[in-house]
Amino acid sequence: MTGPCNPIILFVIFIRRPKLEVPFWEETYKDDTVFTFGNQPNQSITAIENLLDKSGRVLDVGCGDGKNSLYLAKQGFRNIDAFDLSVNAIEKLRRLAVAHSLEINAWTGNLCSFSFVKEYSLIMSFGTLHFVSKNDWHNFIMKSKKATAVGGFHIMQLFTNQVPPSPDIAPFSIGMADDDEIRKLYEDWEIIDFRSYVFEDEHPNVPRHLHASNKITARRIK
Fold it and tell me: What is a single molecular function from GO for this protein (predicted)?
């Protein structure tokens, strides 16, 4: 996952909640035997997989330990870029790619400062955008739309404020969306699927908790 753009804000939050200075996923990113957020690709990817051009470029934003990029690479996609703020995540993804003889261009990066120099057929982000300010993730989506080929797809999922952020991510969730907010940013695209839902989640050493989420799959039509 990528992180907040303003280190001063995070520093203040860390002073208030010192026990959560390091997010829980950093530890599991060090372990190649487990996937922090499950080992199956997101269902929104498999739902449109038959519509995707395997020769097109893919961008995985806030890729974590890379389950979605690894899945697409195993299916024959060869132009995959993936970045995350976490050094541990990227090092793990690179190790896993080498272990499976897969080609993934992975690097440590922040979506707030990312500059598009390529045109993509698929841009995806799962559970990342709410970790930067609303202004920053709005700007990123606008830039990513311009960098998407006509006929290309976006799959974007982020947490909303319909449910308070769980304690494990509360200090980092500075850009929680309003319900339906992200859908409105794609009104000029073909919206293939939009979901607003609440789900139960759990992680190592973190009790079960709720998240409210919006997820959209959209295609650029012009």
Answer: methyltransferase activity
Residue 215 has pLDDT above 60, yes or no: yes
Residue 98, CA atoms < 13 Å, CB-side half-sphere: 8
Exposed, middle or buried, 58 (CB in 10 Å: 0-12/13-18/19+)?
buried
| Residues shown for the chain | 222
Describe the strand order of the beta sheet including 148-159 as a list of residue ranges: 105-108, 80-84, 58-61, 120-126, 148-159, 206-219, 190-203
Q: How far apart are CA 95 and CA 77, in angstroms?
A: 18
Q: pTM (2 decimals)? A: 0.86
Residue 66's region, left for phi above 0, alpha for psi from -120 to 50, else beta, is: left
pLDDT band at 4 (very low <50, low <70, confident <90, very high): low
In order of their start, the domains of the chain are 53-219 (3.40.50.150)
Q: 10 Å Cβ neighbour count for 86?
A: 23
How far is it, in rounded angstroms, from Cα 220 to Cα 140? 16
Alpha-carbon distance of 53 to 37, in angstroms, equals 26
Largest CA distance in the chain: 48
Report the C-alpha gap between 148 and 120 in whole angstroms: 5
Of 107, 179, 185, 108, give the one whose Cα is nearest residue 146.
Answer: 185
Angle at the Cα of 139 (from 64 to 93), degrees rounded to 5? Answer: 15
Q: Please tell me the predicted confidence (pLDDT) of residue 169.
A: 87
Residue 26 reports pLDDT greater than 90? no
